Here is the input.
Amino acid sequence: MSASLLLLSSSSIHGSGYLDYAEAEIREFFGPARRVVFIPYALADRVAYAERAKSRLSAIGLDCRSIDDYATPAAALDDAEAIFIGGGNTFRLLKALYDRNLIEAIRRRVHEGMLYMGASAGSNVACPTIRTTNDMPIVEPPSFRALALFPWQINPHYIDADPASMHMGETREERLLQYLEENETPVIALREGAMIQIREGGAHLKGLRDARLFRRAHPPRELTPPAELDL
Here is the structure.
């Protein structure tokens, strides 16, 4: 793979502040890159969301600006050494990317060398489609097809079934197995605190929590970081 990606299951974990748990990995991933463009389109209050990202990334020495701070989205991408797409509602995010003609533009810049970091919905849109998001379709994007920077599907915020629960709906595992009844693409389910890093052709599971790999016609398999992913 030619893309350099850091895909977080979530931007926060219980008992920790915004991006705190991933700070070491973020510092290592960005390296000497300093100019980061943030895409706040997964939340309704984009201004407040962008300010939060700017404040947090500036604390680790990164010059973060919202894509909306530029005259055009193209100018933002041309200026950026890295892009960070935050979490929220995946359907709203993807629709906004389509509305602004950003799908091909982001894909092109990442394959040219721009670093890509996503959290939750931002990780979902790095996949071939958003079919394994957990979100409600509050808006309708023109397609479920996404950036296709990462060849597998991601299910962020993965939670295991509670054997003591009286809930009668499908578990997360059951929903992902239903996805594989209709689709071939593997799914890596990231518990909060887990992340995937792709660099120089290699993909690795990192972070604080295990992940669960779902493949069609195979039983789910647990993966413990650090682990190499056989894409």
Observations:
- The first strand starts at residue 5 and ends at 8.
- The chain has one domain: 5-228.
- Residues 46-58 form the longest helix (13 residues).
- The mean pLDDT is 96.
